TrEMBL record:
Molecular function (Gene Ontology), one example: metal ion binding
Entry-linked InterPro entries: Mt_RNA_Methyltransferase, Ribosomal_Rsm22-like, SAM-dependent_MTases_sf
UniProt cross-references to PANTHER family, sorted A to Z: 37S RIBOSOMAL PROTEIN S22 (PTHR13184), METHYLTRANSFERASE-LIKE PROTEIN 17, MITOCHONDRIAL (PTHR13184:SF5)
Protein name: Methyltransferase domain-containing protein
GO biological process: methylation; translation
Superkingdom of origin: Bacteria
Record GO cellular component, one term: small ribosomal subunit
Lineage per the UniProt record: Bacteria, Bacillati, Bacillota, Clostridia, Lachnospirales
Keywords, in A-Z order: Iron, Iron-sulfur, Metal-binding, Methyltransferase, Transferase, Transit peptide
Length: 319
């Protein structure tokens, strides 16, 4: 899903007010903080200029990751969602993405860092009516009580910033305020997948059902030396390339995710776990199925399946 032009324009406008050398220094500092201080319940961004720089670098990637997850979700879950709770909203990337897939009438964004909230509010003034009317609350998810329920709750790149015991409490809290869908997205790293794997186990024990990516609700079969993750391509803006000293016009955002729903859905098919390997007359796939993870070789002898397999990519379901 293409990054919204109106959002790209306002980010560009705000960033043009800053000195490029200063922006590069701030970007490097933010990267250092997230690599070394994440998961320790510390404030990582507390100045508006930091939030601006963060948004220019990370919003497109987060937007694309959330869009990819919701795209897979909609293929398995056809019901509408009219209300959204975006937790750890940052500068609002997940909300912008969700509005492309659901007819949202009520949006609530929770973000404990005031600087991030201020920038997110500023950007949303440029959006359509539902985004403009989004409610923002500068509250800590760990300590606050969420009394209202929402059709969809999105937690993107936030649970990995919490310690294990706190994370477990927050996951239960998020499930309790979910009417229909709970979407959890984390970095596509072993650590990020570990968060997803524990959330999966916890929520299945609470009676949740999986929409995606898993085609089964048994114990996860991914081995300890591997991790389940997916990838989406993100187009870099001219400014992004300057900040990162990059020549390539794109980057690949790796992410792990899981989507839960209140009632069981039809998850027929297998999930593609790696890039399909295509050779003359055959396609080799590594897949997660209902009863096993396996490698499949599909040849032209199976015309219908071969035709379908030619169209799938890493992360898709093959039915």
């Amino acid at each position: 899903m293409a990054f919204p032009q109106e959002l790209a324009n306002i980010i560009q406008k705000e960033m043009e007010k800053l000195d490029l050398k200063q922006v590069k220094i701030i970007s490097d500092n933010i990267t250092h903080k997230y690599r070394n201080e994440s998961g320790k319940n510390r404030s990582l961004i507390n100045k508006e200029v930091e939030a601006l720089v963060y948004s220019s670098v990370r919003m497109p990637a987060t937007y694309e990751a959330v869009s990819s997850v919701l795209d897979q979700t909609k293929k398995q879950y056809s019901k509408e969602c009219n209300s959204l709770l975006d937790v750890g909203a940052g500068t609002g990337a997940a909300t912008w993405a969700a509005c492309n897939y659901f007819n949202l009438e009520k949006i609530v964004c929770l973000e404990k860092e005031a600087a991030m909230e201020n920038v997110g509010r500023k950007y949303m003034r440029e959006g359509h009516r539902a985004i403009q009317q989004a409610e923002w609350y500068s509250k800590d998810l760990i300590s606050m009580e969420i009394e209202e329920k929402y059709d969809m709750v999105i937690s993107s790149y936030v649970l990995n910033e919490m310690t294990g015991s706190i994370r477990k409490t927050v996951i239960s809290k998020l499930w309790n305020c979910t009417n229909k869908l709970l979407v959890i997205i984390e970095p596509g790293t072993p650590k990020g997948f570990d968060v997803i794997k524990h959330a999966r186990e916890q929520l299945l024990n609470l009676g949740a059902h999986i929409v995606a990516p898993c085609p089964h609700e048994q114990e996860c079969r991914i081995k300890s030396d591997d991790w389940c993750h997916f990838s989406c391509r993100v187009q870099r803006s001219k400014l992004h390339k300057l900040i990162k000293n990059a020549d390539v016009p794109y980057e690949d955002e790796k992410y792990s995710y899981i989507v839960f729903v209140k009632e069981k859905v039809d998850n027929e098919g297998v999930r593609i776990l790696r890039h399909p390997q295509i050779a003359k007359g055959r396609i080799d796939l590594e897949v997660c199925g209902k009863n096993e993870n396996k490698k499949m070789r599909i040849t032209k002898k199976n015309k219908e399946l071969f035709k379908k397999a030619r169209k799938v990519k890493w992360g898709d379901m093959l039915k």
